[in-house]
Design brief:
- There is one protein chain.
- It contains 13 helices and nine strands.
- By secondary structure, the protein is an alpha/beta fold.
- The protein is globular, with a radius of gyration of 19 Å.
- The chain starts with a helix and ends in a 15-residue tail after the last helix.
- It binds 6-O-phosphono-beta-D-fructofuranose.
- 6-O-phosphono-beta-D-fructofuranose binds at residues 28-31, 77-79, 82, 85, 209, 213.
Length: 325
């Protein structure tokens, strides 16, 4: 990741508008989910900036009041062509906001509409698959640092540096576990996906895109804090769950759900950030925000093994790219 680029963008925005009062995150599908860590960071670390996340067409059709020259809008689209996200980027600029766009595709329609482009990797390796969300978090960290100061800025920078190797080392070690996951869950019709904190977006992304879109397996997303307020009624022996356990402040919520699941002998796969040494690269002051990257990198291997076990490639679709909708 090119952090100098992130700094240059935020500094340029500040030179044009020193009174930013909100940062909005807009995208569709997995790209919206990848924006979640940035949104979560600002909503927890800023005392001044309002932060919100929208699926693009909600931003387009029910645009929040107060969006204008004091707003930064961060949009994202992996391929850069999703019409709703392209339209949101255009709309955000028409409203006079400062628009930064993350995309893998340099000359894509979304990049043509934006003011500040960030072109990220994806296919190179597993760490690259987390680059979009990492850039989004980096923008959020830099925005808070520039506009009000962030106490743990240097610790965050150290964590950014350590993440790519941590992810690549983690994925090398998970092969057998991922294979076991694929074999165990291959015939499931439903998999419940749980997490909390900054990784809630990873749970949503895994459930909605890796499982529902790419494997056609029903997959409710459940916040581990909310699990006890309804969803736990479905817990029973061998019911299939996937937990993304965080290392950080919300670990207590995840552990509480895990204990209850174990009590009823549910079938649980726990992708625990602690098992991959996240705390070796991220200090306790910033660790919460880096869980999504390790969870995403590791989950990709699990999804690949599930696809293999089910003989259902991750690229297979019934409707997407085939029908007009
Ligand atoms: O990130 P992009 O290119 O805008 O693509 C969004 C599309 O990709 C997915 O995130 C994953 O296929 C879909 O959910 C969504 O429709």
């Amino acid at each position: 990741m090119d952090f100098e680029k992130v700094k240059a963008i935020v500094s340029d925005i500040k030179s044009k508008q020193p009174n930013i009062d909100r940062v909005l995150f807009v995208g569709c599908g997995a790209s919206m989910a990848d924006l979640y860590p940035g949104y979560y960071f600002i909503s927890h670390e800023s005392t001044k900036l309002l932060s919100a996340i929208y699926t693009a067409n909600e931003f387009n059709y029910d645009t929040p009041k107060g969006v204008g020259e004091n707003t930064i809008v961060i949009t994202a689209s992996l391929g850069g062509t999703t019409p709703e996200s392209v339209a949101a980027t255009k709309k955000a600029r028409e409203l006079g906001t400062h628009v930064v766009t993350l995309s893998m595709a340099e000359d894509s329609p979304i990049i043509k509409e934006t003011e500040y482009k960030v072109v990220h990797g994806f296919h190179e390796n597993y760490a690259a698959k987390t680059e979009k969300m990492t850039y989004c978090l980096a923008l959020a960290v830099e925005i808070v640092q520039e506009f009000e100061g962030y106490e743990f800025y240097d610790e965050a920078l150290d964590a950014f540096k350590g993440m790519p190797d941590l992810i690549e080392n983690a994925v090398k070690s998970v092969g057998p576990m991922a294979k076991e996951f694929g074999e165990k869950y291959r015939d499931e019709k439903t998999i419940y996906v749980l997490s909390s904190g900054a990784s809630l977006g990873v749970a949503y992304s895994t459930a909605s895109f890796l499982f529902m879109e790419m494997q056609w397996i029903a997959a409710p997303t459940v916040h581990t804090g909310e699990y006890f307020h309804g969803p736990f009624e479905l817990t029973e022996k061998d019911a299939p769950y996937l937990l993304f356990m965080n290392d950080g402040k919300t670990r207590h919520l995840d552990a509480r759900a895990l204990t209850f699941l174990q009590r009823f002998d549910a079938q649980i796969t726990n992708i625990d950030a602690k098992d991959y040494g996240l705390n070796e690269v991220a200090s306790e002051n910033v660790i919460d925000y880096f869980n999504p990257m390790i969870h995403t990198g590791v989950m990709r291997v699990f999804a690949e093994e599930l696809a293999k076990a089910r003989k259902h490639p991750l690229t297979k679709r019934r409707y997407m790219w085939k029908l007009t909708y």
